[in-house]
Design brief:
single chain, alpha/beta, seven-stranded parallel beta sheet, 47% helix, 15% strand, globular, binds adenosine-5'-triphosphate, binds magnesium ion
């Protein structure tokens, strides 16, 4: 516990990168994490199998629609955090993972297509919440943002989410070479050589800010649940 599910019906939205970055950052804080890869393409499994993956990140690879519920339940018993990386479609495995989530993070880059797909994912989360008769918290993580400017399209998309009452993480994941580099070289952004990869320090502080915000969100959701259950 808790289970954080990265979902977006759009391929390439940034799920795997966000899952890996959050897992890496949590791993720096003396905790245990299971990373479940339920995408047939196994992108996060490939990263976790490279040299340098922190030993407190346990990988469950090749999770499928038949195994995902059991994989999540087992992982919840064994590690402090469970992160689930999913494929970029709305499949049975995606719906199942969402049904077990304490928090769904849906990814959105600054295009209208991304925003529309994030809205579709939110609809799926709300449908699963109805089926289960429980709240399934979710928030949008804006990703591949530009640290220098917020383009008008991105501002418009964020305003639309706010108007619809959709929560957006204050931290966005900035487009950084360091986040791409760990996918190629393995390990965490903390292991990257700043002489070889640009912006490592900034990527580290970005990842840290995201982890802090996610943990705060999880804590406040837990408090809310406790208050609701007296
Ligand atoms: N914050 C970022 N900075 C730099 N590159 C990024 C960032 N986020 C994603 N990317 C790049 O964008 C591409 C797609 O990202 P990613 O693989 O994380 O998306 P995905 O949602 O997991 O895709 P899929 O649906 O295919 O699994 C990758 O090449 C990745 O390196
Ligand atoms: Mg992926």
């Amino acid at each position: 516990m808790p289970t954080i599910v990265f979902a977006s019906s759009k391929g390439g939205a940034g799920k795997t990168t966000a899952a890996i970055v959050l897992a890496s950052e949590l791993s720096q804080h003396n905790t245990t994490i299971t990373l479940i890869d339920a995408d047939p393409n196994q992108h996060s499994a490939k990263w976790a199998q490279k040299d340098g993956c922190p030993t407190n990140i346990k990988l469950i690879e090749k999770s499928t629609e038949e195994t995902i519920i059991e994989d999540i339940d087992t992982a919840q018993e064994k590690t402090a955090f469970v992160l689930v990386d999913l494929e970029g479609t709305a499949s049975m495995a995606v719906a199942s993972a969402i049904s077990r989530a304490d928090l769904v993070i849906t990814l959105c880059q600054g295009s209208q297509d991304d925003a529309d797909e994030a809205a579709k994912t939110i609809k799926l989360v709300n449908r699963q919440a109805k089926v289960l008769n429980r709240a399934i918290p979710y928030a949008v993580l804006m990703t591949r943002t530009n640290p220098a400017i917020t383009p008008r399209t991105l501002k418009h998309i964020m305003n639309e989410f706010h108007a619809a009452g959709v929560e957006i993480f204050k931290t966005s994941l900035i487009d950084r070479e360091a986040f791409r580099a760990i996918r190629s070289f393995g390990g965490t952004i903390h292991d990257l050589d700043p002489a070889q990869v640009s912006g490592v320090e900034k990527a580290v502080s970005n990842a840290h800010a995201l982890a802090v915000e996610v943990i705060e969100k999880i804590k406040s959701l837990k408090k809310e649940r406790e208050l609701n259950h007296g």
